[in-house]
């Protein structure tokens, strides 16, 4: 890992690459299914909650920039024990889940012109784009940073243009609201914020690459806030554009490819194909950035002795091994789970990890880093409320995914407790 190898622009490109790839194309339809006609507002509330959450990461990264970002935060908060390791592993797994989510979205959009919405081609294409990201990442940081900048510029410009034209074509009305058959459902709306938060969680990619960003004490925080600001503008613009051209029922029916469906009435067949191309660029860059980040986080967890490591007969560095593990896990999820279940798993893993980060910083580190305790408590409360609402909704619509998430999260904590033999430990000075 090369210190200072990622510029401010490259870091913003990486962060927005993960967020926009997952948020707009993978989650718009699912958020609309929960929030109804208020799905555009869900993105705004998600950005507010994410901004509170980002506070902990920014304060910690300003104090101790690290390529192990979240793992470093957790270890400094809880010491080198199972609590820190399990929470860090939840974060890494949520990033792997995001890779599979965005890869499945890539397949859904690319196959839409052929009227293919299911079948073996969806997971095959999803695995293909994950493998592509693997080979690009092997080439090194500078290749990833350059591609992140290029793809971020193309997709943000293209998506913003789509939003403006589609909104204008729809007469600046909001068909989704006027055609809604149901009223406001508070629990459904709050639950939708869990997916909106998932759409913004790419800012953690920046935290995990802290030491590799130029002038990290200053630029990590700047990069996070710039990325969130760019994304909320793009999300809101596109959500309004989709709602101007499709009813809620139409958005939900096409939830895996809702932007492409909204492009047809707004921009015609050429607009439809343009949206498919934009989706492909956005999702590929999302997978690239996510693989880049999670492989480094797993390598850092290995270096910090928070997880065991096996070569499985492979040669090369630990980082090359973690790239392989990342790709294998993401591909497995992309094959066996649909978009809705992948997104739900990601939300459960991420929100629980996020609460543990805030509690650790509040309980052990807030005085050392000069953090405001009220902001930290608000971040925890927002996460808890959203998680409770999301769990309630999923227990009613898909109780098995709640069971899967509960078993998987419990297994992570039990495994780490057995491996490390203690929940917490005295903090030690660390170069990380």
From TrEMBL:
It is a multi-pass membrane protein. GO terms for cellular component: plasma membrane. The keyword Membrane applies. The chain crosses the membrane at residues 12-32, 38-58, 78-101, 121-139, 146-169, 189-211, 223-248, 272-295, 316-336, 342-362, 374-395, 401-420. The keyword Membrane applies. It is found in: Cell membrane. Keywords: Cell membrane, Membrane, Transmembrane, Transmembrane helix. This is Amino acid/polyamine/organocation transporter, APC superfamily. Signal peptide: none annotated. One of its GO terms (molecular function) is transmembrane transporter activity.
């Amino acid at each position: 890992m090369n210190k200072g190898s990622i510029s401010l622009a490259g870091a913003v490109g990486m962060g927005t690459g993960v967020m926009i790839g997952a948020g707009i194309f993978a989650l718009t339809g699912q958020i609309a299914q929960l929030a109804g006609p208020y799905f555009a507002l869900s993105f705004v509330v998600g950005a507010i909650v994410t901004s509170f959450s980002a506070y902990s990461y920014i304060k910690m990264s300003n104090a101790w920039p690290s390529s192990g970002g979240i793992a470093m935060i957790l270890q400094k908060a809880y010491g080198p024990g199972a609590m820190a390791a399990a929470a860090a592993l939840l974060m890494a797994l949520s990033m792997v889940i995001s890779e599979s989510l965005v890869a499945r979205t890539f397949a859904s959009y690319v196959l839409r012109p052929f009227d293919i919405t299911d079948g073996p081609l969806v997971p095959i294409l999803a695995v293909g784009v994950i493998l592509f990201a693997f080979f690009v990442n092997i080439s090194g940081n500078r290749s990833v940073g350059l591609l992140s900048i290029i793809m971020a510029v193309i997709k943000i410009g293209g998506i913003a243009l789509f939003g403006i034209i589609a909104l204008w074509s729809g007469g600046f009305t909001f068909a989704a609201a006027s055609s809604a058959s149901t009223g406001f459902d508070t629990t459904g709306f709050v639950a939708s914020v869990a997916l909106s938060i998932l759409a913004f969680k790419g800012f953690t990619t920046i935290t995990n690459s802290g030491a590799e960003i130029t002038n990290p004490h200053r630029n990590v925080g700047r990069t996070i806030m710039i990325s969130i600001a760019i994304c909320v503008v793009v999300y809101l613009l596109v959500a309004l554009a989709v709602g101007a051209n499709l009813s809620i029922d139409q958005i939900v029916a096409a939830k895996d490819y809702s932007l492409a469906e909204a492009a047809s009435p707004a921009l015609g067949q050429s607009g439809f194909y343009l949206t498919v191309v934009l989706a492909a660029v956005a999702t590929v860059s999302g997978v690239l950035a996510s693989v880049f980040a999670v492989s480094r986080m797993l390598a850092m967890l290995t270096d910090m002795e928070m997880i065991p490591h096996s070569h499985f007969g492979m040669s090369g560095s630990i980082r090359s091994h973690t790239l392989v593990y990342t790709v294998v896990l993401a591909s497995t999820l992309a094959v066996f789970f649909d978009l809705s279940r992948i997104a739900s798993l990601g939300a459960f893993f991420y929100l629980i990890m996020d609460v543990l980060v805030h509690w650790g910083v509040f309980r052990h580190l807030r005085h050392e880093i000069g953090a405001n305790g009220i902001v930290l408590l608000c971040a925890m409360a927002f996460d808890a409320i959203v998680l409770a609402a999301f769990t309630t909704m999923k227990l009613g619509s898909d109780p098995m995914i709640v069971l899967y998430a509960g078993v998987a999260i419990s297994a992570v904590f039990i495994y780490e407790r057995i491996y490390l033999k203690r929940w917490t430990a005295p903090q030690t000075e660390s170069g990380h």
